[in-house]
User: Which sequence fits this backbone?
């Protein structure tokens, strides 16, 4: 998707920041791509980048196998911006000094600007920046001007305008660097003269053109899960090829309250998509009868899903293409280094291998925030666009013990209260996931004059960036109280509510 856009490459030196840098560049409406540092320079230049950014990295430039890059990269006209480790690498490779000064700087730091600077032109004399370094640049290479310093970094920013090489010790991509985005914008627009063409409208137009070119007049099917990725992918493909698209929505009966209706309403009533809505709740529940072991639940649900999908696909035997909601982070695996892996995910929950479809992946160049933005632009409702991640096996892994229709009803109602109250408190977008869990045990309580013996509900709410790690959300006590009292009053069969305060690790987000 690079053709009409000015492109900036982000060379990944192995920090967790490469994706963030790429996202910030795109927020400035400039197309960015992440490349491993091991990519040959000629291959990078063949992408005709207008600028190249070196990410930070976890290593010291002085360790034996410190990640590096072919210095030939500085010989070309393409401007380079090194960030943190990237800045140290630039300094070292061009003849400056980088030393272990002892202290290092971690966290918010006051930085002072010196003299004139293209990169920092818009910035005040002093400001708060985010630092995270052990080594420091102690002298800039010949030809470079030192344009800023901080208590722990004599050279906090440097530039050689002649050569088009720039470096910042701080992290302009993180929100804690107050004017960070201005620094990136200065590089993109004043140094690289990029055009800000990466807009939602353009992204949609290009994806639509690409899908049309790929599928021609053939039939396409798309499995809708209710989640944001498959919904946006379906809406895009529908805009591209209209009636050639058939969406298949398998209602497993393990979804949250009203989710199935919402999918139906949005895709059939609003978008007039040809939708096959398979109501398979009974089938899933009977397949799960008597099963308590979590992995076995997953296996049964996966297999049942495949069988149902196969049956539907048999009726759509002329379909040649299958839409997948693969995103950019699924394709680019960050990490840099020699073992940088590019992996391709097939994230339709276990479709059979012998189904021979060509894949249509209209979101494969996009980050999640971009997917949401174009979902809104395509007219999808907020409830779908901002939906939290939801596990494929659904509520089955949130009932601890056997899944029964009654327990599903109880959990669905309690879960709906949690989500509704969170929305009402305006916290839905801040919280990664929030939901109810129903452990199939009973606890004693007292209501009115009588003893009760009913289910507890556990509320789980976590903050996270990527689900690999998570922290329990510090929800306000009065919000928790509202959730708890509504659950007890409105959900029959529940007499106790607890809040899960386990982070990940050691816990997982889901209970099973
Ligand atoms: P855990 O519980 O491992 O979950 O911390 C991490 C993220 O993955 C989701 N999850 C699943 N998603 N199939 C899925 O599609 C699954 O079997 C599954 N199990 C967990 C979970 O909701 C969280 O976002």
Assistant:
């Amino acid at each position: 998707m690079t053709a009409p856009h000015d492109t900036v490459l982000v060379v990944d030196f192995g920090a967790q920041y490469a994706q963030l840098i790429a996202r910030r560049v795109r927020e400035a409406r400039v197309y960015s791509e992440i490349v491993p540092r091991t990519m040959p320079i000629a291959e990078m230049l063949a992408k005709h980048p207008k600028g190249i950014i070196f990410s930070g990295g976890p290593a010291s430039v002085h360790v034996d196998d410190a990640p590096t890059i072919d210095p030939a990269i500085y010989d070309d006209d393409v401007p380079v911006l090194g960030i943190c480790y990237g800045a140290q690498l630039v300094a070292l490779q061009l003849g400056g000094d980088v030393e272990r000064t002892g202290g290092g700087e971690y966290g918010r730091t006051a930085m002072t600007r010196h003299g004139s600077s293209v990169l920092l032109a818009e910035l005040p004399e002093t400001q708060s920046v985010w630092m995270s370094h052990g080594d420091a640049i102690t002298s800039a290479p010949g030809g470079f001007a030192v344009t800023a310093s901080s208590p722990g970094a004599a050279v906090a920013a440097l530039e050689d305008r002649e050569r088009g090489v720039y470096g910042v010790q701080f992290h302009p991509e993180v929100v804690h660097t107050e004017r960070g985005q201005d620094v990136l914008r200065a590089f993109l627009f004043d140094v690289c003269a990029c055009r800000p063409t990466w807009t939602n409208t353009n992204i949609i137009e290009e994806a639509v053109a690409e899908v049309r070119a790929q599928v021609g007049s053939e039939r396409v099917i798309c499995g809708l899960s209710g989640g944001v990725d498959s919904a946006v992918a379906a809406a895009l493909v529908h805009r591209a090829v209209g009636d050639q698209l058939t969406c298949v929505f398998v209602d497993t009966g393990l979804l949250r309250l009203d989710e199935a209706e919402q999918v139906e309403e949005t895709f059939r009533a609003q978008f007039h998509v040809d939708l096959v809505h398979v109501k398979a709740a009974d089938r899933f529940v009977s397949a799960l009868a008597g099963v308590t072991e979590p992995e076995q639940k997953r296996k049964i649900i996966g297999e049942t899903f495949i069988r149902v999908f196969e049956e539907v696909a048999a009726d759509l035997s002329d379909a040649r293409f299958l839409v997948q909601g693969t995103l950019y982070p699924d394709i680019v695996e960050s990490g840099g280094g020699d073992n940088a892996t590019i992996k391709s995910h097939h994230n339709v929950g276990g479709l059979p291998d012998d189904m021979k479809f060509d894949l249509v992946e209209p979101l494969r160049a996009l980050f999640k925030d971009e997917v949401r933005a174009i979902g809104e632009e395509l007219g999808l409702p907020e409830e779908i666009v901002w939906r939290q991640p939801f596990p494929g096996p659904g509520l089955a892994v949130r009932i601890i013990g056997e899944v029964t229709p009654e327990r599903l009803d109880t959990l669905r109602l309690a879960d709906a209260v949690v989500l509704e109250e969170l929305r009402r408190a305006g916290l839905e977008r801040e919280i990664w996931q929030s939901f109810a869990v129903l452990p199939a045990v009973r606890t004693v309580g007292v209501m009115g004059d009588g003893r009760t013996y009913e289910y507890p509900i556990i509320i789980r709410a976590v903050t996270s960036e990527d689900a690999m790690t998570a922290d329990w959300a510090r929800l306000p006590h009065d919000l928790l109280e509202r959730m708890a009292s509504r659950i007890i009053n409105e959900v029959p069969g529940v007499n106790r509510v607890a809040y899960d305060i386990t982070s990940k690790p050691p816990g997982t987000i889901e209970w099973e």
